Amino acid sequence: MTRHKILVAVDFEEHSLQALEHSYHLANVFNAEIILLYVIEPIPGFSKFLFPDDYINKIVSHVREKMDELEELAKKAEASTRVPVASIIVKGKPYEKILEIAKDYGVLMIVMGKSSIIDKKKRKYLGSNTYNVVRDAHCPVISIKGGKLSHEFNNILVPVDLSKDFGNQIKTAIEIGNYFGATINVLFVFSGENKVSRILKQAQLNQIKEEVTKHGLICNTETLNTSSNHAVGNIIINYSHKINADLIVMLTQQKKVVTEFFVGSVAQNVIHNSDIPVLTIMPNADFNTGILHNFVDPMGIIEEKKNKNN
After folding, report:
1. Nearest in space to 67 (alpha carbons), one of 111, 144, 10
2. Are residues 126 and 180 in the same domain?
3. Do 191 and 282 form a contact (C-beta atoms < 8 A)?
4. Residue 48 belongs to what domain range?
5. Residue 200: which H helix or E strand, with range?
6. Each residue of 91-112: pLDDT tens digit?
């Protein structure tokens, strides 16, 4: 049986090492091998044209040091988990290389620590590497900040925007939930909608619940009201703590142009601030573990999206 592949981006900082630790159990569950990726960025203050000898010496020294560290990390990981581990070192922009390697190796998912600029500039945005990988990856991305680090996803929170094409988000939650026998918690946060609109939204949630339970999983649904869109991210995080969630499954958003995606402010807030792992997925992303063969798309959303793309 062909093994899946899980790509783990490491920079030897605490968050990336936590991401690596988290990937061990995922690899065992999904029968996957781990690919460790370290990306060497250009050295600040050095020019290969103005200081060719110094530049080359610095690069060679840095590569040797990181190769040794990465190989040692891979050996320890393989010895302690009995999961095949490979290591790759490339030079370039981290997010570009992460996406490139993920595509070249056809990985099942990407696992990475969350990078941030909040400490330096006091801004509540994701670091550019995390943002770009989450936005452009054609497979699920699990971002890990630290804090709660469960080895199993027994309680999965799925915050849905019922006006978006959330079919792939639900399908992914069911795929993962089936591996862990998880409870799926579907959350819809609304603001100022009338009674008729709420009834229609509840009908959609009921359809989602019916689909999830068809696959043998327990499904809970919840609707919460807010007076501000800015509070949605905080509501999601607080609710994840309330239900003791192990994983939050978020959807990236789509622009009017089919091929363009972005990470909305709510998703950024959740990814950045949650101490619980956050899995993000594009509406048309690939995630096929081989376990889900009879998924019925709620409201025909995935099929409608395929027809639009053809």
Report:
1. 10
2. no
3. no
4. 1-146
5. helix 195-214
6. 888 999 999 999 999 999 999 9
